[in-house]
Structures are given as C-alpha cells and as structure tokens.
Amino acid sequence: MGGGGARQRTQAGLEKKALVFPFLRYTIVSGKMPMKITRLSTGTDNRSYFEEIEVPFESRGDFGLFTIPEPAKSVFFREIPPVWEYAWHNVVCREYVITIDGEAEIEVGSGEKRVLRKGDILLAEDLTGQGHRTRVLGKKVWRQVFVTLP
User: Fold this and answer.
1) From the centroid of its chain, how far is CA 102?
2) Which of 5, 18, 48, 97 has the highest Cβ tally under 10 A?
3) What is the pTM of this model?
C-alpha cells in the first residue's frame, strides 16, 4: 500500500498531512485524530444497532501512523447496481465493509438509518437477530471492499 500527501499547517499551527490510499482518504492531525468506524451489532433484544467506534493511530516514525494490526480471513470486492434493495438480513461473518464508490443506506430495527459514502467503513457484526436492510442510493453503483474477520 502506498500513500503520499502534502503537508500544511492548520490554523492552530499543527502539521496536517492528507494521505491518499487506493480506497481510503483521511486526514491525520499530529497523530491525535483516530479513525472513526461505524459498528453494526446485535443487542440483547436481538435487534441490530449502530455505534461509532474510534481506532487510534500510533506513530512509527518516518513510516507514518499505524493502527494495531487485526487478523483478516479474506478480502473481496463487490459491486451493486443502483436502486438495489436487500430485505432484512444478517451478515454471515464479522467483516469490514469499505465503500469505495457510490452510496448506500443501512437501516436497523429501531428505524435508525446511516448512509455509507466513499471512504466510510462499516464493521458489520450483526450475525443474529433481526439484522438490517440495505438499499443503494442514487444513480451510481455501490462498490465495496470486504475484509472478512476470523
């Protein structure tokens, strides 16, 4: 994985560097900004819920900032056409879903909805219960990278 970016100073005088990777774009300010991920999991009432989690970065000197490595089982890509809808369902395994293009809306049993856009990361863990439903928004295909977890 390679990245590059331009350094600049924020109003507060902190150094800011935008790193661009093939699938993700994010900005790190002095290593203090964690990456935010939306977690989708099953509650004790067998309904799925959203939760925002933060993944902190640690400095590795000239190599940049890293998160703690997490084992992965497989990686694959998926493309879904516009106006596609998937009724209530569960994921078959824990997985990260990274949106690389397009938009989709995920709805949980409470009626809460989240829109996933380019660069958004979903940690899907609702293996049981009511699950969630998904629909593609707009006129673009929804492209994703899946990273399945052990």
Assistant:
1) 13
2) 48
3) 0.77
Q: What is the pLDDT of residues 75-125, one digit of tens each?
A: 999 999 999 999 999 999 999 999 999 999 999 999 999 999 999 999 999
Q: Which residue has the tokens 């949106």?
A: 99
Residue type (1 letter), 21: F
What does the pLDDT read at residue 32? 58
Cα 51 vs. chain centroid, distance in angstroms?
A: 12
What domains sit in the chain, N to C, each tagged with a CATH number?
34-54+70-148 (2.60.120.10)
The CB-side HSE value for 150 (13 A sphere, CA atoms) comes to: 4
Query: What per-residue string of b and e applies to 95-128 under the rule 16 or more CB within 10 Å gives b?
Result: bbbbbbebbbebbbbeeeebebebebbbbbbbee
Identify the helix (H) or strand (E) that includes residue 28: strand 25-29
| Cα–Cα separations (whole angstroms), residue 71 to 66, 122, 138, 149, 150 | 15, 17, 34, 7, 7
DSSP-based three-state secondary structure for 63: helix
Question: 25 or 69: which carries more pLDDT confidence?
Answer: 69
Mention every residue, 6+ apart, whose C-beta is less than 8 A from residue 62: none
